[in-house]
Amino acid sequence: MKNNSNIFPLITGILVGGATVYFLKSEKGKKIIDLTLKEGEAIKNKIVDNSKDLLDKGQTVIDEVIQSSKENLNGLAEDAKDVTMNKLSELEKGIQIARTKILNAQ
């Protein structure tokens, strides 16, 4: 009994497979295969084009971030330079005041 229950799916599979092969070998089946291959190629080309666009846009964003970072870093460097120059100027004024006091004290 168990052997008989396995025969039905096997026979069904053979029939479906045979019908599929017969259909795909027919003129209409060949047209469907050709159409599927053409559509597959078109889809592949669209995916490639979209991927290239995304890569280009990603590179543009990266370039903009790098440029912005450089500008921000230059701005920070200028600010640090200004603060340092102001502190040096204050130090020089303090030294000058101390010299004057020392000279007046003598």
Secondary-structure blueprint:
Elements lengths: L1 H24 L1 H79 L1
What does this protein look like?
97% of the residues lie in helices and 0% in strands. The chain is mostly helical and 106 residues long. α1 (2-25) crosses α2. The termini are far apart.
The parts where pLDDT drops under 50 for at least 5 residues are: none
Helix content: over 70%
Q: What share of residues are in beta strands? A: under 5%
Number of domains: 1
Span of the ends, CA to CA: 127 Å
Q: What's the SSE pattern?
A: HH
Tell me the major beta sheet.
none
- Computed structural class: mainly alpha
Report the count of strand segments.
0
Features:
106 residues, 97% helix, mainly alpha, rod-shaped, 2 helices
Could you provide a short overview of the structure?
This protein has helices spanning 2-25, 27-105. It is mainly α and 106 residues long.
